[in-house]
UniProtKB/TrEMBL annotation:
UniProt region (Disordered), positions on chain: 102-135, 204-274
Species in which this protein is naturally found: Lachancea fermentati
One GO cellular component term noted in the UniProt record for this chain: nucleus
Keyword field contains NAD: yes
Name of protein: LAFE_0B06018g1_1
Active site: 170
Alphabetized SUPFAM superfamilies for the sequence: DHS-like NAD/FAD-binding domain
Length: 394
């Protein structure tokens, strides 16, 4: 992407004029951090399918297997590093905060009950201290940006993304909640590498070198166009349901092991007492606070996005990053912006009919590595020095 590219210059003019910017982020952005995109519906993890790993029924039948899967994902996410795209989005939202409510704020690993969490629900006015109640139109005097992430890997937070300008639509690998019916305990940003001694012993670990070596190969495969009649997103299901597994991240060595055998790998049956337990009720097993198949998207996150649309001026620009944006609810948000006269910019490794897309005055398509494209595309707003001083430690 050259600075004198007329296509880029046209987008820069739109970016500078826009007042309300919505960013929809998919797994393509995390791929540049060494977390390959993969659809569990089209394959397996060590021979196990989505129904074995990511449904409430699977957790009830074999919580140990499910926890081994998510412990492996947590391990991979913590070994990965935020990339330039994460830092660029974080700087965008630091300079132009969404001024929306926080549901709920990060607690640095401290557990909150549902009541305690709701007490911290506040609106942040950029012109003054947090206030309760509605958001005044006088709040929206300048630009504002909100990031909706379909990823669960926690890389946005590690890049320093402001909490009140980030909606994790599918939850987070590092948030947990109690499965006991009458217990409302939740914990946020729990970044212990392994949560119990048993998980430390039995969690499958991947080689980071092997993962990075195969990442280039995986990205080349992702760039190849899909069959004409097959409408499959780079990070999403072919169905209308959206879950955490639309953006499942697997190591390349895990995939090679699982696809070479029709039989699932044999993992030990873990005793429920060896799994993470609720410190509040002392009875329930904790589960990852992510959206599983058969579960609805969290209302709080949906409400936060709706609030961004309904309060203040219309959203006039949507950035679709590392995803095609063709699966609900991402598609609904894109259509909502388009219906209100807003414009669209797509940053993805593969863009369908990119030549036709770029002929439109209201749509820009930037094909390639989103982590490299975003800093250049957002430069008029974030400048050249957008990374924090300690970025290499994150």
């Amino acid at each position: 992407m050259e600075a004198d590219d007329p296509h880029l210059q046209s987008f820069h003019r739109c970016l500078q004029k826009s007042r309300r910017i919505l960013c929809i982020v998919g797994s393509g952005l995390s791929a540049s951090s060494g977390i390959p995109t993969y659809q569990l519906q089209h394959g397996t993890w060590h021979g196990y399918t989505a129904l074995d790993l990511a449904t409430p029924e699977a957790f009830q039948n074999d919580p140990g297997l499910v926890w081994l899967f998510y412990s492996s994902r947590r391990y991979e996410a913590m070994k990965a590093k935020p990339n330039e795209g994460h830092f660029a989005l974080a700087e965008l939202c630091r300079r132009y905060p969404s001024r929306m409510a926080t549901f709920p704020p990060s607690t640095g690993g401290k557990g909150l009950s549902g009541d305690e969490s709701s007490k911290q629900y506040k609106h942040h006015d950029i012109n003054g201290p947090p206030v309760s109640g509605g958001v005044s139109d006088t709040t929206f005097k300048g630009k504002s940006a909100l990031v909706i992430s379909q990823n669960v890997d926690g890389l946005h937070q590690r890049a320093g993304h402001p909490q009140n300008s980030l909606v994790e639509l599918h939850g987070s690998l590092f948030d947990m909640k109690c499965t006991q019916f009458f217990c409302n305990y939740r914990t946020h940003n729990e970044h212990d590498l392994f949560l119990t001694p048993t998980l430390r012993t039995y969690t499958p670990r991947s080689s980071m070198k092997k993962r990075k070596r195969n990442l280039a190969k995986n990205s080349r495969l992702e760039k190849s166009p899909p069959p004409k009649r097959q409408r499959v997103d780079s990070d999403a299901s072919v169905t209308d349901e959206t879950t955490d597994l639309e953006n499942v991240s697997h190591s390349s060595d895990d995939l090679s092991e699982s696809t070479n055998s029709s039989q699932p790998d044999a993992f030990p049956t873990l005793d429920p007492q060896e799994l993470p337990h609720c410190p509040k009720c002392h009875e329930g097993i904790l589960r990852p606070a992510v959206v599983w198949f058969g579960e609805s998207l969290p209302l709080r996150q949906m409400d936060q996005v709706d609030q961004f649309f309904s309060c203040g001026p219309p959203v006039d620009l949507v950035l679709v990053i590392g995803t095609s944006g063709k699966v609900w609810p991402a598609m609904g948000y894109v259509e909502r912006v388009k219906k209100n006269g807003g414009k669209i910019a797509i940053f993805n490794t593969a863009i369908e009919d990119i030549e036709e897309v770029n002929k439109s005055k209201n749509v820009w398509g930037f094909q390639g590595d989103a982590s490299k494209l975003l800093p250049e595309a957002l430069k008029p707003l974030i400048g050249e020095h957008y990374k924090p001083r300690d970025w290499f430690r994150r």
